[in-house]
Each structure stands twice: as C-alpha cells, then as structure tokens.
What we know:
Blueprint: H1 27-41, H2 50-74, E1 76-79, E2 83-89, E3 92-97, E4 100-103, E5 109-115, E6 120-129, E7 135-146, H3 149-154, H4 159-176, H5 180-184, H6 188-203, E8 210-221, H7 227-296, H8 298-314, E9 319-323, E10 329-334, H9 335-348, E11 375-377
Helix pairs in contact: 4-6, 7-8
Region (Disordered): 1-28, 351-381
Family: Belongs to the band 7/mec-2 family. HflK subfamily.
Function: HflC and HflK could encode or regulate a protease.
Amino acid sequence: MAWNEPGKDDKDPWKNKGGKNQGPPDLDDLLKDLGNKVGGIFGGKSSGGGSGKSFSSVGIGLALIVAVLVYAFSGFYTIKEAEQGIVLRFGQYSGTVEPGLRWKWTFIDRIIPVDIQTTRDLPAAGFMLTRDENVVRVEMQIQYRVVDPRNYVFSVTNADDSLSQSLDSALRYVVGHAKMDDILTSGREQVRQDVWAELNDIIEPYNLGLIVVDVNFKDARPPEEVKDAFDDAIAAQEDEVRFLREAEAYAKGIEPRARGRVKRMEQEAIAYREQTVLDAQGEVAKFEKLLPEYQAAPEVTRQRLYLATMEKVYSNTSKVMVDVDGGNNMMYLPLDKIMQQQNQTNRIIPNASQSVNTSGNTVNSAPSSSGRSDRFNNGRN
Length: 381
C-alpha cells in the first residue's frame, strides 16, 4: 500500500515529525526559529529567557569597540621626507603638515601630499617665426621646483599645465623678437636669458607656487629644406671666428717679440754710446799722458809716433816696401802674387824653377794681373 494513500496520515513523511520515519523540517518553521535567535542577540525576546538579554549587551559592546579601533587605525598616514601635506577639513584648507607619521580624522580630513624637493623637467619645442621672417625650430627645457604647496594646488587648476603654456608663450615671444643668425649661432645665451626673464614675468601674477631653477637651450635648427644652406653659413661664421682668434693670438705673440727687439736695440744703443764715450775718454787720457813727453822731446816723440803709425798700417798688408840705397826709387814686393803664381806653377810643372834678381835697382816679380811690376816714385821726406 502506498504511503500517500487516503486515511494513512501516519505514513506521510511531511506530517509525521515525531515518529520514527521523520522527514525534512518545515521551511517556515526553520525561518521562524532563525529569526527568533537573531532577535535575541540584538535585544529581542528569546525562548531562553534572561540569558539572551545578557548575550545581546556583550555583542553590542564588542561591535562598538571594534568600530572604534578600526576608525582610529584608519586615521594614520605617512608624509614622505621630500613632501609636505595639505590638510583639507570638510573640503576647506586647514593647514600643512611636515614629513613623518601623522593622524587625521577619517571621513573629515583629507590629505594631499605635494613633493617640494624634487626638481622637475618641462620641455618645449616647435617651429617659430623670427624677426627677420625666417622659420626656425627651437627646443628648450626648463627645470623647476614647488616652493609653496598651497599656491601650487589652489591658485590654478593645474600648475604644471599653466607653466607649460607660459613657457611656450615666453619662448615664442623671445624668438619672434630675435634674428635667426643670433638664434643659431652667437645669440643662443642671450635668447636663453631672455626666455628665463620673460617666463618669470608671466607666471609671477598667477602665484603658481613654483620657482624656475634653470633654462636649457637644447637645439635650434632651420627647416630641413634649407638646412644645407644654413649649415654652410654657420660654418663660414665659425671660420670667421676662428680666423679672428688666430689673428688675436698672432698679435699677442708678435707684440712681445717686437717689444723685446726694441728693448734690445735700446740697450745696444746705450752700450754703444757708453763705449764711444769711454773710447773718447781713453784717447783724451792718452793724449794727456803723451803731451808732456812731446813737450820734453818733440823730435823723438814725433819719430816714434810716425814709426808706430807706419807699423800699424803696414801690419795689415801683404806687400813689402823696399828702399833702394842711393836712389829715389822705392819698390815693393807683392809676396802674395809671387806665392800664388809659384803655387800654380808647381801644380803645372813640378820641376820648374824660378829666379828672382835682387841685385839691381829693379825687382822682377812673377807676372801679376797687370802684367808688369809696379813702381812707386816716393821721395823721402
């Protein structure tokens, strides 16, 4: 017989809960029991009586303690060494905090860390029109730092973007008032200084809380279509500068040498003057010594001076003067010509001999270049 046959309720597993063949519990009863237990924990009536009320009080206390601990620990935060923290209380600026471990009111305070020590880079580049109506591409880079965190965050919407736009404006203004040759060659430093000054003037009214540390002029070049021509022009200008430097170096090297020669000539002139003066003084002293001797014996002194003079004159000649006794003729022997002709004859005819007749009044010498013997008619004075 089937268990669900009419009149056999004791066989029904859903209704026979206390018998041996107990089936699954009723879902409504299960949910009801669970609701009673939860209500007892939070202070509701429970089938357990007084023990349920004490259990609910302990649970509420523990929950409050845990909530307080979580809230307290959630307020701790750290500001790095290179940063400063901006405190916002209910969205309004409340102050700044220094680096270290800090605590804030969670859900009340908000902390915005700002790096104030790191040096940041900002590039700028583009094609620009110069004063002489040429197009040039300029690349520049600036370095800056944050000095006022409050102004950096609240003065403008984005301080970095505002600085970038200001740099582009300053760069175009300066390039537009400069010539292309200056930008490409000798005026790069002046352009860099002008951009720096113009950028500071632009950002000053906005109080960005930034300071520009340095401005670097990275590159400046003409468009590719005319780059070769400008390269030649730049090379010519560099050659001009090099030649000027070489000329200056040559001038600096030649001038000291010229001054040295002038000084040497001056010293030689002074020495010559001193020598001439001393020689004159020596001659005067010699004359002063000789004058008393001459006054004492004029003829002897005159003869001695004559012989000394003649000795001095004839000591530098190769000719020998011969005074023939008993006549008015005086001859000389050209010893240099005689020795030269003898040497030539010895080279041509080794055994040739020559004779010189000195017994008469006339001396025959070797043929000279004139082909005759020279005679001097000299009267003895």
